[in-house]
Amino acid sequence: MTRYARITGTGSSLPPQRLTNADMVTMLAPRGVETSDDWIVERTGIRARHFVADGVYASDLAAEACLQAMDAAGVAKGEIDLIIVATSTPDMVFPSTASILQHKLGIAGCPAFDVQAVCSGFIYALTVADALIRSGSARKALVVGTEIFSRLLDFNDRTTCVLFGDGAGAVVLEASDVPGILATDIHADGKHTGILCVPGHVSGGRILGDPLLKMDGQAVFKLAVGVLEETARTVLAKAGRSTEDIDWLIPHQANIRIMHSTARKLKLPLDKLVVTVDQHGNTSAASIPLALDHAVRGGMVKPGDTLMLEGVGGGFTWGSALLDF
Length: 325
Ligand code: UT7
Prior knowledge:
This protein is of the alpha+beta class. The protein has helices at 21-28, 37-44, 58-73, 97-104, 121-134, 158-161, 217-239, 256-265, 277-280, 287-297, and strands at 4-13, 18-20, 48-50, 82-86, 112-115, 140-148, 166-176, 181-188, 196-197, 201-203, 206-208, 214-215, 248-251, 306-313, 317-324.
């Protein structure tokens, strides 16, 4: 019998501090940084984002999301035999945020590791977990995207600081006789490193290079709209499905214009697009599982629906997963 991996529960976490675009205008004004609600909404679709308080780490948001996902799946801590965390904002240089999360969840012994593929991280993590479950190496996995991008933002750079937010999303992925994940597709092209990066690194007790986020927004935009259509078509072909089979498109939530363009290219009506970028901003690796959880808890995504998840971001990385929920 073919062994599949199936999502059996979702969860998410957003820090309580919510900043609207008007709050950002007020916060940035004393720095002489000008922005407006009109510009942010028109160019990105973002209306609000959440920022963590001091002392809160990616593993804290992840733990809350995982507890919700395990509760939704009806899975006990002791049953989890794999933890994969996608993050670009780890608690520490090492050990992995997954190891720290494992301990915070009161789990010990199972493999736990991080995946670093920036905004495509959740698709990468899901792809690895799917492979480990299908091969028989794991039965019940936690797959998590968690980010605290507010700590990487340069609040003197209006072209980036209004775009990102903090949050986490998680799924329980279980071995199953019925699909499940139908196909995945992941890619990277490292020649584009410079268009979206945090160039700083730790060396000899100091940070060398700039530890704040840099982005050439237009270059990222152009690449994103191309690869998101391409990977969606590739994953559909791998699964032997067509665009008409898609009930919900859940792309990385970075910019509503990129999301609309992807839906249009795939000839999907916009009411099949799950949108949370307006309320969360860009939460990098957390954006897809956060959007998925909101769509599930909001009653949009129902058991049996076919979902197209798509990620794109720094690296440059991109990828997709097609699944029956
Ligand atoms: O998560 C990984 C994936 N990331 C993405 O997908 C991001 C992709 N890129 C984008 O979403 C868009 O390129 C941005 C939202 C970053 C920028 O939108 P844009 O339409 O490409 O704007 P632009 O960079 O061409 O800037 C247009 C104008 C500029 O002014 P001038 O030079 O025309 O006078 C900017 O200085 O908008 C100005 N601008 C702003 N104005 C008010 C840039 N940021 C702001 C701002 N408020 N926050």
